C-alpha cells in the first residue's frame, strides 16, 4: 500500500532507520509530504525497476445541447510515461581508532552529514532533475512543466517586459497587482496546492506582498518547523544543493520577452506550486521493500577501516496530472 515517511517510521524495526526517517522529515519538506506508491516489483530474471503510468494532459469540459441535436464528442487527452527507480545515498569509511574516540562521535557525524547530503540531492532532483544530464536520476518539475498549460509566463499574460517586478512593491495597490498574477498562476492548477516552493529572496518579498494584502500567516508543521503561509499555503525555501552552497532554486538572468529587445534581465526567480497525492505529484518505491536502509560500520571483525552506508529507495517522482503542479516564471526579486 502507498506509504509516507511518517508511516515508514512506524514500520521501521531498526532504531537507526527511525532516526534516518526522522532526519528526512525534519529537513526536507518535499519528502515529508510525498506519498510513495510502493508497487514496483523487482521479481524475475532481468526485471527492471520501471514504473509506467498515464498522465492526464487536458481537462474535461461540458456544454449545453439543443433538443434533437447531439453533443460534440470530446475526449480527455492522456499520455503514457515511464520512470526508472534509482537508489539515492552514499557511503563513508571510518578507522576503528576514530570510532573509539568520544564514543563513536565520528561515525555519527559522518552518517548525519550523509543524510543531509542525500536529502539535499533529492530536493535538487525534485525540481532540477534531468535524465539527459544524469541518467541515474529522474526528471524534475522544471523539465516536466516546461511547455505545459501550468507554466505561467508573464509575457503570455499581458506583461510586455516578460517579467513581474516584486522589488518595486511598496504599497497595497502594487501588492494587489502582484497578487493578481499569483492567483492567476495558482488558478491553472486543478486544486489547492499543498505548498509553494521558491528561492529565499523571492520568499522574503512574497511575505511583504502577502502582508500588504492581509494574506500572510505563521504556523508550525507536523514536525515542529515554523511555516510561513500565503492564504494558508505554505511558502517553502527548499534550501541548498548537496555538497555546495548553491541554492536548489536559484535566482538567474534571462531574456524574458523572448525577442531579445529587452535584453537580459537579472535577478529572476521561478516559483513552484505542488498538489501532492496519488492522482497528482507522488513518489514511487519498490513493493515490499523498506523506504530507507542503513549499513553501519562493523568494527567487530578484523580490518582497520570499515564502511558505512545509507540509502533512500530505489525511488522516483511522477506527475500524474499536468495540472497538479505549476511554475511561475520570471519574477524579479533583485
Automatic annotation (TrEMBL):
It comes from the Bacteria. This is Phage capsid protein.
Amino acid at each position: 500500500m502507498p506509504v509516507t515517511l511518517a508511516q515508514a517510521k512506524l514500520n521501521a524495526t531498526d532504531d537507526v532507520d527511525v532516526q534516518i526517517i526522522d532526519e528526512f522529515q525534519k529537513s526536507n519538506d518535499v519528502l515529508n509530504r510525498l506519498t510513495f506508491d510502493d508497487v514496483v516489483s523487482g521479481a524475475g530474471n532481468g526485471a527492471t525497476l520501471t514504473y509506467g503510468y498515464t498522465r492526464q494532459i487536458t481537462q474535461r469540459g461540458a456544454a449545453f445541447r439543443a433538443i434533437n441535436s447531439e453533443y460534440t464528442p470530446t475526449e480527455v487527452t492522456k499520455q503514457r510515461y515511464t520512470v526508472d527507480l534509482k537508489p539515492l545515498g552514499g557511503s563513508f569509511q571510518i578507522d576503528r581508532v576514530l570510532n573509539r574516540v568520544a564514543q563513536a562521535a565520528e561515525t555519527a557525524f559522518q552518517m548525519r552529514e550523509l543524510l543531509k547530503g542525500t536529502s539535499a540531492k533529492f530536493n535538487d532532483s525534485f525540481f532540477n532533475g534531468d535524465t539527459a544530464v544524469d541518467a541515474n536520476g529522474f526528471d524534475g518539475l522544471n523539465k516536466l512543466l516546461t511547455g505545459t498549460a501550468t507554466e505561467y509566463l508573464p509575457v503570455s499574460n499581458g506583461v510586455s517586459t516578460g517579467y513581474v517586478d516584486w522589488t518595486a512593491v511598496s504599497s497595497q495597490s502594487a501588492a494587489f497587482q502582484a497578487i493578481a498574477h499569483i492567483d492567476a498562476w495558482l488558478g491553472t492548477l486543478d486544486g489547492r496546492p499543498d505548498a509553494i516552493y521558491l528561492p529565499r529572496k523571492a520568499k522574503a518579498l512574497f511575505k511583504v506582498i502577502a502582508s500588504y494584502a492581509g494574506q500572510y500567516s505563521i504556523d508550525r508543521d507536523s514536525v515542529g518547523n515554523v511555516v510561513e503561509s500565503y492564504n494558508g499555503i505554505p511558502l517553502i525555501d527548499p534550501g541548498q544543493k548537496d555538497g555546495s552552497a548553491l541554492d536548489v532554486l536559484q535566482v538567474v538572468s534571462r531574456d524574458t520577452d523572448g525577442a531579445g529587445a529587452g535584453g537580459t534581465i537579472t535577478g529572476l526567480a521561478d516559483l513552484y506550486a505542488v498538489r501532492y497525492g496519488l492522482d497528482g505529484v507522488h513518489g514511487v518505491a519498490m513493493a515490499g521493500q523498506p523506504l530507507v536502509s542503513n549499513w553501519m560500520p562493523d568494527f567487530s571483525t578484523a580490518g582497520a577501516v570499515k564502511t558505512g552506508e545509507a540509502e533512500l529507495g530505489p525511488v522516483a517522482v511522477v506527475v500524474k496530472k499536468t495540472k497538479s503542479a505549476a511554475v511561475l516564471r520570471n519574477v524579479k526579486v533583485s
